[in-house]
């Protein structure tokens, strides 16, 4: 058996598409698309969505998204999704045109920062300032 025959055809396609050293993470996610448990194209895409985007691990516990193992940043999640979808395309023999038409989640809107209220310095008018001949007493 020749080495290029050791891997399933889908995984070999991923290895060929993401051959560069800097593309190894995307090769891994492509192969995750190949190895996805889904029996249909749509199920495979759903698995890519779960793999590549941070979601709460515990239901109704938004903070638990931080322990999700997906890539994290929006650009990495997008690249992960594209690679995983490519793997699904290889697995189900989907034409490249259809694979390229798949869109990932829309990006979350940026968090709006509320402007801080203006700081107004005002001194009460009934408090008088000590004069030069008054000595303030302080205790140590």
From TrEMBL:
Protein name stated in the entry: Defensin-like protein
**Native organism:** Rehmannia glutinosa
Q: Region (Disordered) spans which residues? A: 101-140
